[in-house]
Amino acid sequence: MPIKRGAAPPFDLRQGRYGLDHTAAAEGPAMACPTCQKDPDTKYRPFCSKRCADIDLGKWFDGTYTVAGDEAVASSDDEGPKPH
Fold first, then answer.
1. How far apart are CA 22 and CA 44, in angstroms?
2. For residues 39 and 21, what is the distance between their CA atoms, to the nearest angstrom?
3. What is the pLDDT of residues 54-71, one digit of tens each?
4. Dihedral sign computed on CA atoms, order 9, 12, 18, 22
5. pLDDT by residue (tens digit) across 19-78?
6. CA dihedral defined by 33, 37, 42, 44, rounded to 10 degrees?
7. Which domains are seen in the chain, by residue range?
8. DSSP secondary structure code for residue 76 in this structure
9. Is residue 35 within 8 Å of 52, Cβ to Cβ?
């Protein structure tokens, strides 16, 4: 069915591909803080505070959290000092 010029589209532009309204996600907290399970603060989203964000960042730094993947391949720069 062709759409006439100037006619409104047959769907709401705010809705996604499957008719889901994506504006609702911006209106309020959809999930709890991953660290303490409190409601998130928009300033630190998805966390509720700077403290919880820092706790999570620390877990990435100390290796508690990791991303699965292949072992890193050593480059030629990692072979040690070059002779003069």
1. 21
2. 22
3. 999 999 999 999 988 887
4. positive
5. 555 555 555 547 999 999 999 999 999 999 999 999 999 999 999 999 888 876 666 655
6. -50
7. 30-65 (3.30.50.10)
8. G
9. yes
Q: Are the CB atoms for 67 and 52 separated by under 8 Å? A: no
Q: Which amino acid is at 40?
A: P
* Burial label, 2 (beta-carbon count in 10 A; 0-12, 13-18, 19+): exposed
> Cβ(49)–Cβ(41) under 8 Å?
yes
User: Which residue in 53, 12, 46 sits closest to 28, CA to CA?
Assistant: 46
Per DSSP, the three-state class of 15 is: strand
Query: CB of 15 within 8 A of CB of 23?
Result: no
* Residue partners of 47: CB distance under 8 A and separation at least 6: 33, 34, 35, 40, 41, 53, 56
What's the one-letter identity of residue 70? Answer: D
